[in-house]
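The authors assume throughout that readers already know how a fold can be written as discrete tokens. A single example would do more here than another paragraph of explanation. An entry of this sort, consisting of the sequence and the corresponding backbone structure tokens, reads as follows:
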Amino acid sequence: MSNKKFYISTPIYYPSGNLHIGHVYTTFMCDAIARYKRACGYDVYYLTGTDEHGQKIQDKAKENNVTPQEYVDNIVASIKQLWKELEITNTDYIRTTDLKHEQVVQKVFSKFLEQGDIYLGQYEGWYCKPCESFFTQSQLVDGKCPDCGREVTKEKEDAYFFKMSKYSGRLLDYYKSHANAVTPSSRLKEVITNFIEPGLEDLCVSRTSFDWGVKVKEDPHHVVYVWLDALFNYVSALGYNTENPELFEKYWNEETEKVHVLGKEITRFHLIYWPVFLMALNLPLPDKFLVHGWIIMKEGKMSKSKGNVVYPEPIKEMYGMDLLRYYLLREIPFCEDGVFTPEQFIERCNTDLANNYGNLAHRSLSMIRKYFGGRIPAYKGCINEFDAGLEAAVKLSTNMFFEKMNNFDVTNAIACIFEAIDKANKYVDDTKPWALAKDEAKKEELESVMCHLANTIYTVSVLLSPFLLEGTTKILNMLNCPEHLRNYEAISLPFGQLGDVQIADAITPAYARLDAAVEVERMKENIYTRK
């Protein structure tokens, strides 16, 4: 096993309802990065899970005439099944209702009490139930929640508070010396300007108005409030402060690269509360926060009231996992908001997968079968400027791909690969292998063309494998690519590793072209309903 270790997490999702494509986007993003890191030789720990406590869950369970535990168990079962169907490669799935998690939270709360970081007081302020967040009057926008825009209610109750103000200066100093800890940097600037520099207010960390949560051991009338509870999932899953801390010691240390992927709506909780809690416990901080935007519909944010919430299940059922995965990772701009429309979905999948990548592989392998009985000619170097140009383009795209992925810029990393694919399609048009095949004197040129195409398709397929799971495997199988070449270490070897190999007898398109007019209407009829 490699000495290089990598830890990555999604936020834990709130199981108040079925997951939509926004949740799937985050999970695909983490999964692609995890697959990439494994391909680079890292020992990867990939965590996802669910945040299952709080007043909203308690109210939802009551509406459905079930216990809160029964309610979340049902939702979690469907989430785990979805991740299985989407081939998500998470190492573990943490639930905040897991006994190991609740015990960690209780121990942490007791530790904070013991060292004077938590004190008992009284909270009076404006509370947003959907966000499970408190706000002061000045933080409200038009009298409503500044995060989601919903109505807030005045709450007053006894509560425990964490002394955020005690760590304000230390947190600011940390970010001044770790300016690259957050991508995009604008998110960190917002948090520093709006919250840290003005001075952190002490944080309410317990509630008494409901009881669905982790009980405060010293005062069971209180339950631990969501953010202290939920954020510790990142280490409770690893066995922090338990009898079995081996995973924690292995993956949560200064040597392991630790990355949290999260949506912009929970930025300040992760960039303020989580680092402060870790500082208070003298634990290492995450190395990177990747903050992505929202998936927006034409009508604005997805909303059940608008009827424009897009669910992943019908898309996968209609078009397969690859198209859903590819569209979200390629079309949604890295760390920005992105728009989802059926029209864009069909166009992106047709253009990139069917026309460019899929067609390149299909016509190239078909010509290898036609002209050389299915045997890839051995590599003999470059015999003209076209060969040299293609090799240079593949090398440049490969190098740029690794540079982008090492910075977690998934969207543009994929774009780099398609630059090589575009170059390869142009190479076919420039070299005209169908014309070379008619002239016996041009056999050496034809061999070089077929070899260069086969090796380019091999290279881009291996590079695309963290993002496209089914099509890349199908194409590599048709190439009859040996297993020992299906990795990034082989990609770093000189061009032309695949040669004198007999390809498959049956060459079929990896991606079929979709009828835009038909499929757009089909999507509109199906994607807003989870079956």
